[in-house]
Amino acid sequence: MAAIVTDPVRTHVLGVPVDVCADVLQAALALKQRGGGQIVTLNAEMTMAARADPALGAAIAAAQLVIADGAGVVWALARQGFRVRRSPGIELAWNLLEQAAARGWRVALVGASPAVMAALRQRLAEALPALQLVFNAHGFQKAEAWPELERQLLAARPELVLVALGVPRQENWIHALPGSRQGLWMGVGGSFDVWAGAKTRAPAWMGTLQIEWLYRLVQEPSRWRRMMALPEFAWAVLRERR
Ligand code: UDP
To answer: Relative to the CA of 199, which ligand 1 atom is closest?
Structure first.
């Protein structure tokens, strides 16, 4: 008997859309079957960025699936009465690569440094030898190279496209690509760096304590300014309810 899959329920956190899903992988696979679209992995920092940046706000509003990646968003949803598990984008993205390998999807990878992209391709060839990689481009191209790369990418008719250009560039870039597109398109932030071994994820216990952000801050102290969005997010959510 097929598993019962509840459809995602769309709600908003501080005016930014987010889909409450029982199972994000099933929601992504269902989206693929419906013809595909953009997947956004929303955290507190991104929610605050979307409120300040209309282009990012529009890209998220137009996305077909917005998942709760981040303890802050899960907490804000709980205050609305939605009990959801945190769904790290890096885990959904890897699960989608596994699905792609198993189902023969055409896969494209865009972003990260040339060295990380090279290491990632090697890692994927070892971990998922059946993966059909139809296009890859690192994320530090000259501005004039992008139009031709975009043309080649679309011509490759990918069914899964993972984009590691950082927030908000990756979301805005996916949203602005011209033409009709099939498949799943997803911004994955620093996931390529982690998969390639250039960066490490926080240990599981930090995830349980919901302090992965602290690990990230220690690894990349320059992020402190961006992370000021976290207390601002908490304060805005508390005020919104009142
Ligand atoms: N990146 C890129 N081109 C750029 C700037 C960044 O490809 O011009 C890549 C970078 O190498 C990294 C990813 O984008 O792999 C961004 O990772 P980050 O952890 O900063 O993601 P965020 O937290 O912004 O989602």
So the answer is: 19
Asked, as a colleague might, if the bond just before 168 is cis with ω within 30 of 0, I would say: yes
Ligand 1 midpoint to CA 163 (Å): 9
Which helix (H) or strand (E) segment holds residue 107: the answer is strand 106-111
Whether the pLDDT of residue 5 is over 60: the answer is no
| Closest to 108 (Cα-Cα) out of 132, 90, 124, 130 | 132
d(CA 129, CA 177): 29
> Does the model's pTM come out above 0.90?
yes
Q: Is 139 in the pocket of ligand 1 (CB under 6 A)?
A: yes
Helix 54-62 and helix 169-176: axis angle, to 10°? 60
CB 69 near ligand 1, within 6 Å: no
Residues 6+ apart with CB under 8 A from 58: 175
Nearest to 17 by CA among 207, 56, 150: 56
Which of 193, 212, 222 for mutating ligand 1's site (highest number of atoms within 8 Å of CB)? Answer: 193
Residue 129 has pLDDT above 70, yes or no: yes
CB contact at 8 A, 199 and 193: yes
Per-residue pLDDT tens digits for 65-98: 999 998 999 999 999 999 998 999 999 999 999 9
